[in-house]
Structures are given as structure tokens and as C-alpha cells.
Design a protein that fits this description.
The protein is α/β, with parallel strands linked by helices. It has helices at about 15-30, 50-75, 90-100, 120-125, 125-130, 160-175, 190-210, 230-240, 260-270; strands spanning about 5-10, 35-40, 80-85, 105-110, 135-140, 150-155, 180-185, 215-220, 245, 275. A 10-stranded mixed β-sheet has the order 3-2-1-4-5-10-9-6-7-8, with helices on both faces. The protein is elongated and about 70 Å long.
Length: about 290
């Protein structure tokens, strides 16, 4: 990863977006990154009532507010920060700005389900994850430990990639983390169990060869009626995880990016940060095998 790292953080000044900014500041120190704070002014529905003069005044006021906010955050965190003010649809502007900046990550708060609190940053998180080619870290929980001691890496037999494992190793080396590889078993089929066991062993050896401490285990639902996401989140909480890394798109030739139901559920319900990675078309997106 380049040392010219940039982290984009959309803010709407809501408590959750400020928590995301705090986490991004911690991340920036570890990755030697600069933060760009993005404020999006949704003017559709407002512009019809304002004259162009009023719109200019409105925009100027937002710019002053944003610059004052950034100056305050720089003083508070000691992290290099800049700001961008955009007009338009929130999720479109977030994705577009991240591409313009060639950002390393987007870090944004989310309120979870869209049926919940309608803060516009929170309600747009899934849209950003779905549309962005850049990894997105969503922050739903309100209390987080500093650092990243335990990375939770869920794997299965068909959709996981080297790309996801390599990203976990990058984070682990930066933070001195342990990677906890986990697969959820919903069958007693001996062939599947043996195949999954072999894959976990391959991944564990690959991670340990890179110099990162790793554990790997197969877990089962204890209640019998839990979803895959519920089992993973429960495991992550018991393991005192600090970050869950998931792959959010398996079919790279789709025009519309797709987020599977398990990925959505993890993003919506995990109180610990979730790093969502969309595999790039040029990368290997087959089942994991060692180099």
C-alpha cells in the first residue's frame, strides 16, 4: 500500500458521523494518511425556494462552517485534514469524490437499517458500499477500543479471494493484530467439512507465513435458526473483534454492483467496524489457494 494514503470521511455533523471521523483519525495515524472531510449539500427541493443569490449565501455559510469544523478537528487530533463541499445526491458525491482523490478508504457512519434513523449519511451507507470500487469502512457502534487487536475474517468455500486475505494481512501488520479466520458450518456433510477444513488450514498457513498471528476455526450455530450474519457477529463479539472484513460483491461482471443479504446484515447489525471490499475485475476472485 502506498504511503500517500488518503481517507475520505463524509460528515453531516450527526453523532455517528463524528464517531466515524474519530475512528478515521486513529486509522490515519497508523496508515500515515491525510483525511479529506466531505460535506454534501442536498439542494434538490431547496433550490426551488431560493434565488441564486440566496443559494450562493447558503453555500458560503456551509463552506465557512466546514472550514471551522476542519480546523477544530485538526487541532483536536493532530491529523492532516482538508475539506470538500459538494452539491448533489449524497452517495453519488461520496463515490465520485473518493474516485477523484484516489482514496485508500472511505470511512463513514451508518445507523444500520434504512428503516431506522434517517440521517442522510447513515441511510446512504449501503448505497456507497454497493457503488464504490474503493474499500468502505462502516461505523455503526458508538464505543470502540483504540487500535485493532483482533480482525475477524469470515471465509466460505466459494466466494472468498486472495484479495480479501491480503487486505486482512495489511491491516494486521499495521496494527499488530491477530487475524481470526472463521467459517460457519450449516451441514454435517463429510465432504464439505473436509474441504472447508483444508481451506482454513491453507489460509492459516498463508497468513502465518506472512508473519501475522492467526487462528482458524469452524463454528456452528448454537441456536439452530440463526442466519450466517448472526453467527458471524456473535462470534466476533465473543472474540472481542475490532474489525470484520467482508467481500461485498462476488460477480464482477454485473453492471449493478450487488450486496448479498449476509453482507447487508453484517453491515447493518455489527456494532464493530466493517471493512467492505469489492473485488476488482483484474484481480483473482476464485476460491483461495496459496501462492
Amino acid at each position: 500500500m502506498s504511503e500517500h494514503n488518503k481517507i475520505l470521511v463524509p460528515v453531516d455533523y450527526s453523532p455517528q458521523s463524528l464517531i466515524a471521523l474519530e475512528q478515521a483519525s486513529n486509522l490515519a495515524k497508523v496508515f500515515n494518511a491525510e483525511i479529506t472531510i466531505l460535506k454534501v449539500a442536498e439542494t434538490s427541493g431547496v433550490s426551488t425556494f431560493f434565488t441564486s443569490k440566496h443559494m450562493d449565501e447558503f453555500t458560503s455559510a456551509l463552506e465557512v462552517q466546514l472550514k471551522d469544523f476542519v480546523a477544530e478537528q485538526v487541532k483536536k487530533t493532530g491529523v492532516a485534514m482538508s475539506s470538500v463541499l459538494k452539491k448533489g445526491k449524497v452517495y453519488d458525491e461520496i463515490v465520485e469524490t473518493a474516485e477523484e482523490l484516489k482514496a485508500t478508504f472511505i470511512v463513514m457512519g451508518t445507523s444500520g437499517s434504512e428503516s431506522g434513523m434517517k440521517r442522510f449519511i447513515g441511510s446512504n451507507a449501503l448505497r456507497v458500499v454497493r457503488s464504490s470500487n474503493i474499500p468502505v469502512i462502516t461505523i455503526k457502534g458508538q464505543h470502540h477500543r483504540k487500535g485493532c487487536q483482533n480482525i475477524i475474517l469470515p471465509l466460505d468455500l466459494t466466494k472468498e479471494t486472495k484479495e480479501k486475505v491480503v487486505k486482512a494481512i495489511e491491516f494486521a501488520k499495521r496494527f499488530g493484530s491477530t487475524i481470526r479466520v472463521v467459517s460457519v458450518l450449516f451441514t454435517s456433510d463429510e465432504f464439505i467439512v473436509n474441504r472447508l477444513t483444508r481451506q482454513l488450514d491453507q489460509v492459516k498457513k498463508f497468513i502465518e507465513k506472512s508473519g501475522v498471528e492467526c487462528s482458524a476455526e469452524i463454528i456452528k450455530s448454537t441456536k439452530g435458526n440463526e442466519s450466517l450474519a448472526e453467527v458471524i457477529i456473535d462470534y466476533a463479539n465473543k472474540a472481542k473483534g475490532d474489525l470484520i472484513i467482508i467481500m461485498t460483491q462476488q460477480e464482477t461482471d454485473y453492471t449493478e454492483y450487488f450486496i448479498g443479504s449476509s453482507a447487508q446484515e453484517i453491515i447493518n447489525h455489527s456494532d464493530m467496524p466493517v471493512l467492505s471490499i469489492i473485488p476488482q475485475p483484474s484481480k483473482d476472485t476464485t476460491v483461495f489457494t496459496p501462492y
